[in-house]
Amino acid sequence: MQTKAVVLGTNYFIGLTIIRTLGYEGVKTIAVDYLEEALYGSKSKYLGAHYLAPSFREDPQGYIAKLIEIASKEDTKPLLFPSADPYAEFIDEHLDILKEHFLIPMKEKGLWTSVMKKESLFHLAIEHGMPVPETIEAPDPNLADRVEAELGYPCIVKPVDSPAFVAKFRRKVLYCNNRDELLDAVGRAENEGLKVIVQRIIPGFDDHMYTFDFHVDQSGRISHWATCRKLRQFPINFGASVYTEQRYIPELAELGIPFIEKIGYRGFGEIEFKKDEKTGKFYMIEINTRTTTLNYLLYKAGINFPYVCYRDMTGDPLPDKAVKEDTGYVFQYLFEDILACRDYMRKGQLTAWEILKSLFRKKAPAIWSLDDPMPALSYTGTLIGKTVKRLLR
User: Fold this and answer.
1) Which of 115, 291, 314, 318 lies closest to 223, judged by CA?
2) Ramachandran category for residue 206: left, alpha or beta (phi over 0 → left; psi -120 to 50 → alpha)
3) Residue 342: what pLDDT?
4) Chunked mean pLDDT (size 10), the chain, 393 residues
5) What CATH number labels 5-114?
């Protein structure tokens, strides 16, 4: 019997791209959600079954029980794919029991969470010689004085636990131009019980952000990798990719491969780097431990990362591959890219002509697919519904 894959979360396009890229290879998928709305990924023709479970936040044991129930119906252990950071943290927290019922690439419990959290990632980077922006941990009795002396303004306040921070503030960082804004930002986070760090901003526009996407096989070796360059993100300056090109940058592999292999990582991951526009030096910003927004771009560029993981975990690994050329493909999340372009122009960071020139590229769309149109139609319907509700209010 064929091993199936269980995908956690279809209310965002990452889950949809996992379902599709596995489906292209004939792998049957099962999706699990705890929400009941905006599940456009579940409309894909490549999805075999869809289940609703209790909330993993409010009823973690009920959620685990539902996952075990789903796995117990299969003849072989399914492979488990998180589509968002909270799912990855949940799997990591309950790795011991979940590995009894699912194939999960990570071997060391706690490592996924450790590299996701900014504070522990900073210490790992220092230990293994990976360049990272200068950072001060809060709370610190001399925080403001240290920031002025060691980092300077502007600087950013970043969360140790990104999912909880984003859920509260609807942004990845808090931008601080002076001492008062710094103290206010740190105070707001502390009032919410969120631990933060303060970090120097590496100079450079959003197109100085890069990614190193990789898969580590079960022997601990990076078998597949590719690199990309962000062109636009949303929210602008400190957000997620909305328009990103695949671009071969060998220096990222030279930095990323030894670091990832030293820390004992397994499975798919993505290191985000920023290139200092003044020095040309790359600094590690963060690591994503789940399939990323760029999954379909990476597929179009030549590597089907979910399928690479599937074959590795089922004992039939694919030949090694690295994308060592510029394929010309760009990822676009159209809805948020429109919002980003609006904000870039409002702030004078991009002109309409610069944006227009960038659009004539081979696309890897976030949601739309002529072969599988229902998710895009469902997503569009959800957007229209939300717009009508706002107008009625």
Assistant:
1) 318
2) alpha
3) 98
4) 95 97 98 93 98 97 98 97 96 98 96 91 94 92 93 91 81 91 93 92 96 98 98 94 98 98 97 97 96 97 98 98 98 97 98 96 97 97 85 79
5) 3.40.50.720
Q: b/e for 159-196, b at 16 or more Cβ within 10 A? A: bbbbebbbeebeebbbebeeeebbeebbeebeeeebbb
* Sequence ranges of the domains in the chain: 5-114, 134-200, 206-375
Report d(CA 186, CA 191) in Å as an integer: 9
Residue 26's beta-bridge partner residues?
none
Which CATH number applies to 134-200? 3.30.1490.20
- State the Cα–Cα distance between residues 195 and 135, nearest whole angstrom: 14
Cα–Cα dist 35/304, whole Å: 28
Full DSSP string of 333-370: -HHHHHHHHHHHHHTTSS-HHHHHHHT-SEEEESS--S
As a CATH number, domain 206-375 is: 3.30.470.20
Q: How far, rounded to the nearest angstrom, does the alpha carbon of residue 379 sit from its chain's CA centroid?
A: 20
- Do residues 323 and 301 touch, judged by C-beta distance below 8 A? yes
Amino acid, res. 54: P
d(CA 197, CA 118): 8
As to burial, measured by CB atoms within 10 angstroms (0-12 exposed, 13-18 middle, 19+ buried), residue 278 is exposed
CA distances to 245, 333, 387 from 380, rounded to whole Å, are 25, 13, 11
pLDDT digit string (tens) for 275-291?
Answer: 999 999 999 999 999 99
- Rounded to 10 deg, the angle between the 305-313 and 13-23 helix axes is 60
Strand partners, 82: 8
What is the structure's pLDDT at 172? 83
- Of 184, 156, 188, nearest to 172 by C-alpha is 156
* CA 4 – CA 79 distance, rounded (Å): 6
Largest CA distance in the chain: 63
